[in-house]
Write a structure and sequence with these properties.
Elements (H helix, E strand, L loop, with lengths): L1 H5 L2 H11 L7 H10 L4 H25 L2 H6 L4 H14 L12 H11 L4 H28 L1
Helix pairs in contact: 2-3, 2-4, 3-4, 3-8, 4-7, 4-8
């Protein structure tokens, strides 16, 4: 990940984008690394959030391109898919708030696309969740830096 930090804000954007897809990566480490290296806090938060958000929207688009038949080929029953869809329908776009969660967040983003959750509300909730994640890390960084 060090090579990404060597690319500055562009590297932070790319790393944050990749971390929001199925690529196992830690955008949190990149964010803190950029802050430690002297990155401007607002710009660092903005770049990390936008990269991670666009990566999440890409995962959503991948899910949206999916077809029920493809999932059924993986030996997932239609009944199981219907149950999952009912949960997504129950909570709607607000599920996108959880796309920041490590490991399962990407699955949420793909599922939201697969189940055709409305793009605009989903995108806004996703943006809020991802921004909240990075603001939290920034506050943790500030607390440890001051202590």
């Amino acid at each position: 990940m060090e090579w990404l930090l060597d690319l500055g804000y562009f590297g932070l954007f790319v790393g944050s984008f990749l971390a929001a897809t199925v690529v196992p990566f830690s955008a949190d480490v990149l964010l803190v690394g950029m802050l430690v290296a002297g990155g401007t806090p607002l710009l660092t938060l903005t770049v990390a959030t936008l990269g991670n958000w666009l990566g999440g929207l890409t995962s959503y688009a991948i899910g949206r391109a999916g077809k029920w038949e493809w999932i059924e080929r993986l030996h997932v029953s239609r009944e199981s898919l219907e149950k999952q869809k009912a949960r997504i329908d129950r909570y709607g776009a607000i599920v996108a708030l959880l796309t920041w969660v490590p490991f399962v967040g990407d699955i949420f983003a793909v599922a939201l696309g697969f189940y055709r959750v409305k793009v605009v509300p989903m995108a806004l909730w996703m943006l809020v969740g991802k921004c909240g994640r990075f603001v939290t890390w920034y506050l943790i960084y500030i607390i440890f830096k001051a202590g």
